[in-house]
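User: I'm curious whether this sequence folds into something compact or stays loose and floppy. Could you predict its structure so I can see for myself?
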Amino acid sequence: MTEPSPDTTQQAPFEANPNPEASAPVEEAAPLDPITALTQEVERWKDMAYRSQAELDNFRKRSAREAQETRAYANGDLLRALCPILDNFDMGLEAARQESEKSMVFMGMSMVNRQIQEFLRDSGAVEIEAQGKAFDPNLHEAVAQEASTSIPEGTIIRVTRRGYKLKDRLLRAASVIVSSGPPAPAEA
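Assistant: Here's the prediction. I'll summarize afterward.
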């Protein structure tokens, strides 16, 4: 049998650098002993494992915090939708009070009002204190200004619509009438 002759036209399957003059000179690194190379490789994998563990811990904490926040403020839309209903109920309660505080209608509405206030409190909603307080644009919505000799400028005279907060978030700003201070003297 004859052996096949080597083909001189084919190149080797992997040739490192066919033209060494064309490339920039490469600094040759000192060969590392196998133990040092393996130690460095182990340290690199350990570092990656620590970083991955830290990322996973941060993800778990962030997820838990977001879930807790979602549970805490989940009722926000429901309570916000309930606000106009409460306004109408308050108007009805006031009308029943003006008719007679001894009437059965007023007493029944008062009991329902107590239950609503307990429900709001249990849900984490609190009414924004406004009457007699300094105007705060973060909590109050000024619908008008009135001159007043007895109430200083920037103080709330009346509340026209109650506002509510859910824990530390604003559900609805209180609509208020603010004092503009003493009236200006009439010009002659």
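Summary: Residues 91 and 97 are 10 Å apart (CA to CA). Strands lie at 125-127, 140-146, 156-161, 164-166, 169-172, 174-179.
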